[in-house]
Design a protein that fits this description.
single chain, mainly alpha, 6 strands, globular, POT_fam, PTR2_symporter_CS, membrane, transmembrane transporter activity, transmembrane helix
Amino acid sequence: MAERMAYFGLSVNMVAFMFYIMHRPFTSSSNAVNNFLGISQASSVLGGFLADAYLGRYWTIAIFTTIYLAGLTGITLCATMNVFMPDQGQCDQLSLLLGNCEPAKPWQMLYLNTVLYVTGFGAAGIRPCVSSFGADQFDERGENYKSHLDRFFNFFYLSVTIGAIVAFTLVVYIQMKHGWGSAFGSLAIAMGMSNLLFFVGTPLYRHRLPGGSPLTRVAQVLVAAFQKRKASFSSSELVGLYEVPGKRSAIKGSGKIAHTDDFRCLDKAALQLKEDGVDPSPWRLCTVTQVEEVKILIKLVPIPACTIMLNLILTEYLTLSVQQAYTLNTHLGHLKLPVTSMPVFPCLSIFLILSLYYSVFVPLFRRITGHPRGASQLQRVGIGLAFSILSVAWAAIFERYRRKYAIEHGYEFSFLTPMPNLSAYWLLIQYCLIGIAEVFCIVGLLEFLYEEAPDAMKSIGSAYAALAGGIGCFAASILNSIVKSVTGNPDKRQQSWLSQNINTGRFEYFYWLLTVLGAINFCAFLYSARRYKYRAEQKFGIQEVVTIKQNTPARG
């Protein structure tokens, strides 16, 4: 909750802070924030690797939350000490629009970007480990393990959503009433309190031992398979597929995994030949379980890869929809909602859906699909992707109307002036649709990756989701740059689709582009989901495992 509060608090406020205080253009500010979002999620692969290989999830969380807190403290100092900010004395709104305000010095931007990216790096140990560490607290041999796990991931994402709601409301309110330093300081205080609470709970936790470097095991399988690439499954020199005797796997913290026929080329890493001897090198002969780990990691890749598009759309909404809201009337009766609080609405829709999920959605979907939990994990991911396409399609339709209205009523060059007769609450439709998309897709993906990932690679599995989010953020920056360079021509004074002046740009074309890309991505997901086979219903605990006898004869 505290990490997402900081994540979203920075994502909506940092663009405005860089524009109004550091005097940076909207485009460079949004790209810097997109990079922060990308680092926050893509670095999760490192955190997942360290947790599974060496530190365990507990110590990984402990170390990286401390780094996160240090970054937030540095951002707070930047917003409170004048030495880190350019002169604000002669900078009014007109000067901002014309770009005549004194810009931040290079060293000031270097400091801000450094502490911002340190904060993003701190998420490396939080994103992949917190959900997995929470799920580790349940006994996989328990009678209601799957239902408890299902409810845990929903409760986990509910906590994440509450953190986002607080960021979009309370933190924005603090910023408006008490300034930027207090707003960023409140994020640091929340993270500090969460760290304290996490450490207080230390005696209660159930730990899963790190199983050694997963990357080393993957490399050993690839090297061994390459060395034996010419070996035949029917060779007279073949002893069998190698596995250690007994119930336990050779991998610490993991049960044995039954052999499958997928990726037969990798099985050659487990081919035990007479020439291998009694004590073969792990770089020449691997166990069946080790080979199956690699197969599982490969088979999982297409599913989170298909969620990159959803994360790209979510990233675009954090900046583009705020630019839309600046031109609209945000009054709700006598209450004026700050523009930076507009993204709270998808969070509220997520909160509502998660609250009603088991009482409304599960019974409804159970009647349609016949699935005991309403919908399978992949079905939920697919539902989410479909709703994301509807969201950007509506955004394109409304943006065409908004731009036409602005030009017809003389607001073409007043892109920071709200139009009193056009309500910002038309944005609620796209916000609610993307909220539905997020809750179905992300929660389903997290549960899918945790259950399907190998025992000793649960954090790596969870990191897949965060990596997809990070790639989505970076892809958003790349897509923005491509669209600006292709559609804009400064020599001919031709504005790009993503012009800083939203009324002279063509945001609706950009939204239609996202719609087309989303539809193509959805087709790719349907293909991948139909081909995917869930892992067999087995108990993969340390004590209760499926035993593969040593020297199992290979099938030709």
